[in-house]
Design brief:
Chain A has helices at 50-58, 100-104, 106-111, 115-128, 144-156, 174-191, 202-208, 226-231, 236-241, 275-278, 341-344; strands at 6-15, 24-34, 39-43, 65-70, 73-74, 85-88, 162-166, 194-199, 211-216, 219-224, 246-255, 260-264, 270-273, 286-291, 317-324, 329-335, 345-349, 372-374. Chain A has 375 residues and is an alpha+beta fold. The relative contact order of chain A is 0.11. In chain B, helix 3 (65-72) crosses helix 12, helix 4 runs parallel beside helix 7 and helix 4 packs antiparallel against helix 9 (204-232). Chain B starts with 8 loop residues before the first helix and ends with a helix. The chains are: A alpha+beta (375), B mainly alpha (297). Chain A binds chain B through residues 58, 60, 79-81, 85-87, 89, 91, 93-97, 106-107, 110-111, 138-141, 154-155, 158, and chain B through 190, 192-193, 195-204, 206, 211, 214-215, 293-297. The structure holds adenosine-5'-diphosphate (ADP) and magnesium ion.
Amino acid sequence: MSKPAIRLRGVRKVFPGARGRDPLVAVASLDLDLRPGEFFTFLGPSGCGKTTLLRMIAGFEEPTAGDIAIAGQPMRGVPPNRRPVNLVFQSYALFPHLDVAANVGFSLAMQGLAEAAIADRVAEALAMVRLEDMEDRLPAQLSGGQQQRVALARAIIGRPAVLLLDEPLGALDLKLRKAMQLELKRLQARLGMTFVYITHDQEEALTMSDRVAVMRAGVVEQLGTPREIYERPASRFVADFIGESNFLEAVVTSVAEDHAMVEALDGGISLRLDPAAAAGAATGDRVTLTLRPEQLDLCLADLGYDDDPHTADGLFGTIEDVVYIGTDLRCVVRLTGYPSPDAAAAITRGPPGWCACPGTPTGPIRAWRRARWSV
Amino acid sequence: MAAIGGPTPSRALAAAAPRRWRPDAAALYFTAFTLLLYLPLALLVLFSFNASRTMAFPIKGWTLDWYAQAWQSPGLRQALANSLAVALGSSLAATVLGSLAAVAVLRFRFPGRRLLLTVATLPLVVPSIVLAVALLAGATQVNSLLAAAAPGLESARLKPFSLWTVGISHVVIALPMVILIVAARLVGIPRRLEEAAMDLGCSYWGAQRRVTLPLARPAILAAFLTAFSSSFDEFGTAFLLAGTRQTLPTYLYSQLRSAYKLPMVVAAAAVIIVASLLLVAATELLRRNGETRSEGA
Ligand SMILES: Nc1ncnc2c1ncn2[C@@H]1O[C@H](COP(=O)(O)OP(=O)(O)O)[C@@H](O)[C@H]1O
Ligand SMILES: [Mg+2]
């Protein structure tokens, strides 16, 4: 396999605490290899250290410990202007005194290219982000979306080995953001450039990335493809952060060849798990079951249900709330046998064409078979 | 000609603009205020064209003689040359030193950052007499050091009473204004612009030159003009420190003793007033230009 585009080894960043405060660990010992040409996303809530990590790769912060290599070259002590990466800033950071052409051509002018060559490359880069005939405008005369494209063109024009993007779509409205997501992905594929993307928006991460690293408080909680992260969250934090989830605390009561039995802590109900879901379980383990709304099959009590032994062990409840969200019905179900109101609600989706009113008792909410669990 | 006070007077004025004032009361107040401020100046300019030597109405006739007289006076010419030299030198020095200090305070972290700001802006409130005396003491110390370091080199001594010490005092007086004006602008230039420049291939100083300096240029020019005008009309330390030499303000003051010279002094003063107004207008224009430009930043 070829050299990693970026190699992080034990990368750590500790900020000295402000007067009287403890030092702040922004990034804690990260080991990671990013592949050349991949769209890699760091996903995590605000303040988890994403920007700090990106700034270390770009060269604006020195790691407290550990090493960063870009395209095989160690980066310790290398200033930002000598690193083969470019950064698209969270707030664009366009030069307000320079017009679009001068902004986009800035790095080429720094390299001392001839003016005619710069003009050609600027036109090419602007075409790539679909922003023609704007060369003479000042940044203040552009809309947010246009400024975003200028920032992008300015960063890719120098053909860096790696493009770093710090929440580049954060300031755009939803529709523009969606359009830009697809465009960014297309641009990345066309350039064959490694993109390192930062976002706190899980949907954005899932849409665009080849691989995602979910971060929490300076630590990578899970690394995987969007599918792996969504379908097999490694921790409750990941499951909670990505998509909507129901959680059920339970104890493993028995493990057999083809299934495991768990008992929900609150409800005292026994549930049967599939081998895939129960892999690695041992009797007596405390586990958290994670159930995506779309993994749950909801049926109504009065419609009757089959007595399949695999599914007879569902939960029962009463529909508390039904919200129409266009593609689905979003149902909140109050589970029978759960005293505490927090654990009582299960969020699920109704079957297509299904209609129910609050207060309707449900049949078993099935599909525990497809549940994921974690310790 | 008063140096401009706060860093951004136009903004302060705009922010302080009252919302619901009866327009007639406002107009009245503004008119009275302006009259009080500018009437004496207007009168001075008016009387500079007065054919009579006495400054009183009615005006007997119009003449440009006083201007011609002022222009031909060797003493006044020398004083003007001295003033221009001191103002140019001291304002250049103050602009360079003050701008660097502003960059240091705002862009770097080092112990005593706040202290530097306090110390550097202290001359704003120290009376010029105190400053002059302190400078005299300082000059003596410097001279004894110089004498120890290079005995026999008389020409390398800092004469306590000379245009040099006047110039140094003007640098000290102008520094706080320069620092405040430039710092006010630097605050509005986001650091990430410098980082973007470095990301795109600039060294640190390259980023300063290509991004920070152009964005701060109007403020630096405004600071220079402010320093220049404050030196040009400074009287206190010039009077105490210039020794046998004279700057324009001390020369005009000395001429006031003879009533015979009064009209010429008035004519010279009128020229200074008009020049000052133009300078202040240019400064303000520059600063506004700088403010609107940076709005997209
Ligand atoms: N220069 C700094 N000095 C001190 N603390 C910082 C600095 N930069 C970031 N931090 C802290 O480090 C943590 C991570 O910040 P950041 O990397 O910006 O998070 P994110 O981009 O994921 O929102 C935050 O708690 C932030 O307050
Ligand atoms: Mg951030």
